[in-house]
Amino acid sequence: MSERRSGAAEGLSRLSEWADAHLSLLRNLSTGMAVAGVLVLARSVRMTTKFTSALDIPVEFIKKNVKLRGKCHQVTEKGLKVEHVPISIPFLTAIQRKWQSKGLLLVRLAGVELAPSGMAWLQQELKPKQMVWFQLLGRQDSALECLVLVNKGRFLSICLNEEILREGLGRAARVEGLHPPSRLYWKLHKRLLRAELKALKKHKGIWEEESYSERIRDHVSNNKFVQTLKQLASWLRSSLWR
């Protein structure tokens, strides 16, 4: 019995000595396995992938209305040109940058029909390469229909979709990418309509009332008698020059 115990003790001692001698190898091996695990996880959910095209974004992301972040590079008539900034993981992000392609996503403000003054407001509001968050609602060809949020402080952020309507810089429209019967569609549509109603009540932006003199002038110019006099004057003028 004592011989068996001494043999087991000797084997355990040798194993301990081998582990001490190869400690760095074991550490590197465990680190490699951990990194491999993170790589497999990141690849499966694509949480660290930089999207350069709307078509690259998985359908699951859009169905689950995933919120992404990015830098706004340009405001155009078609939408915002945004550079997607994925989640950063040490070591893994450095490796991915080597094969990531370049490109900007076209992000539209869902449920908003921009007025010319609205686009001018966005160009002033969004600084070059300003960080924004965009929540995926739908995809139309090469464009993404989104709610776009901008941080205005440590604990404050504004939704550009609502803010534009609240300032009277656009009109509420159909939320493309969402089906009207869905709960989310009506929830967002109500939010946008309420924002538009505030601008309408305060006569802001495109809802600003005309002055009294402008209304009188339009009324006179649209009067049938005045229009007849204009036609008669035009006819007399052309007759005299014949």
Automatic annotation (TrEMBL):
Report the source organism: Brachypteracias leptosomus
Question: Where are the bilayer-spanning segments?
Answer: none
Where is this protein primarily located? membrane
From the Swiss-Prot or TrEMBL record, give the protein name: CC033 protein
Membrane topology of the entry: Single-pass membrane protein
GO (cellular component) term, any one: membrane
Q: What is the lineage of its organism?
A: Eukaryota, Metazoa, Chordata, Craniata, Vertebrata
The answer, when asked if Phosphoprotein is one of the entry's keywords, is no
**Which InterPro entries would you find in this protein's record?**
C3orf33-like, SNase_OB-fold_sf
Q: Does the keyword Membrane apply?
A: yes
Q: Where in the cell is it found?
A: Membrane
- Keywords annotated in UniProt: Acetylation, Membrane, Transmembrane, Transmembrane helix
Which Gene3D superfamilies does the record associate with it?
2.40.50.90
